[in-house]
C-alpha cells in the first residue's frame, strides 16, 4: 500500500495538504477520549481524523520506505500506545501518570533543550498548583451583580402573600359596594317603590316563609 499512498495526493497542492492535516489534528484532539463522559467523545472520529492526516503527510515523503515507516509510526503512536495507556490506567493510575509525565519531560528536553525543560515544569506547576490556589483565594471577593438583564425569579411565598392580599381587596371592595348600595336604598326608601323591585320581591319571599 505504500506506493499507492505515496502517490495518492500528487495532484493536490502542499499548502492544501498541510491545512487539511492541521484541521484533522484539531478534530482528533477535540473528539479524543480523555476519560470523561461527554457527548462529543468519539473514538472512531478521532482515530479516522488522525489517520487521514497521517496518510496525507505520508504522501508528501520522498520514498516508499519513508511513507511505510511514517504510517507504522502513526499506528504505534495513536493506536497501540493509546490501548496500552488505557489498560495501564485502569490498574495503576498514579504509575501511569508519573511515567507519561517523565516521558513528556524527556521529549521536551530533547526537543527544546534545558530552557524548554524548565519552562515546561514551571508552566505545569503554575497551572496545577498556583492557579487553583489563586482561584480559591479569589472566591472571597466574588460578588453577584443583579440587574434587568437577569432572568425573572419566581418567589412562591410572595405569590401566596399577594394572592391573599388580592382576595382581601376583593372582599373589602365587595363589602364596600354592598354597603354603598344599602345606603342608596335607605336614602331612596322614602320614594315609592314598584312591586317588582328586588327589595319588594325579597321581602315578600321572607314574609311568606
UniProtKB/TrEMBL annotation:
KW Glycosyltransferase (keyword) present: yes
Pathway field: Glycolipid biosynthesis; glycosylphosphatidylinositol-anchor biosynthesis
Main location: membrane
Entry GO MF terms: glycosyltransferase activity
Cellular compartments annotated: Membrane
Any one Gene Ontology cellular component term annotated for this protein: glycosylphosphatidylinositol-N-acetylglucosaminyltransferase (GPI-GnT) complex
Protein topology in the membrane: Multi-pass membrane protein
Signal peptide: none
Record's keyword terms, sorted: Glycosyltransferase, GPI-anchor biosynthesis, Membrane, Transferase, Transmembrane, Transmembrane helix
GO biological process: GPI anchor biosynthetic process
Transmembrane feature ranges: 67-85, 92-108, 114-136
Transferase listed as a keyword: yes
One Pfam family this sequence matches: GPI2
Family statement: Belongs to the PIGC family.
Name the UniProt record assigns to this protein: Phosphatidylinositol N-acetylglucosaminyltransferase subunit C-like
Organism classification: Eukaryota, Metazoa, Ecdysozoa, Arthropoda, Chelicerata
Amino acid at each position: 500500500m505504500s506506493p499507492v499512498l505515496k502517490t495518492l495526493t500528487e495532484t493536490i497542492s502542499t499548502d492544501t495538504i498541510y491545512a487539511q492535516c492541521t484541521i484533522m489534528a484539531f478534530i482528533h484532539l477535540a473528539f479524543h477520549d480523555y476519560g470523561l463522559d461527554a457527548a462529543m467523545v468519539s473514538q472512531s472520529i478521532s482515530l479516522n481524523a488522525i489517520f487521514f492526516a497521517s496518510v496525507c503527510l505520508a504522501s508528501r515523503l520522498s520514498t516508499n520506505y519513508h511513507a511505510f515507516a511514517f504510517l507504522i509510526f502513526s499506528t504505534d503512536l495513536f493506536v497501540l500506545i493509546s490501548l496500552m495507556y488505557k489498560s495501564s490506567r485502569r490498574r495503576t493510575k498514579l504509575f501511569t501518570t508519573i511515567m507519561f509525565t517523565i516521558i513528556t519531560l524527556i521529549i521536551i528536553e530533547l526537543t527544546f533543550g534545558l530552557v524548554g525543560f524548565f519552562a515546561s515544569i514551571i508552566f505545569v506547576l503554575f497551572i496545577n498548583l498556583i492557579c487553583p490556589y489563586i482561584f480559591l483565594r479569589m472566591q472571597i471577593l466574588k460578588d453577584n451583580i443583579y440587574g434587568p438583564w437577569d432572568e425573572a425569579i419566581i418567589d412562591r411565598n410572595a405569590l401566596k402573600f399577594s394572592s391573599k392580599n388580592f382576595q382581601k381587596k376583593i372582599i373589602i371592595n365587595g363589602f364596600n359596594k354592598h354597603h354603598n348600595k344599602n345606603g342608596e336604598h335607605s336614602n331612596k326608601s322614602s320614594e315609592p317603590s314598584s312591586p317588582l323591585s328586588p327589595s319588594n320581591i325579597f321581602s315578600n319571599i321572607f314574609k311568606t316563609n
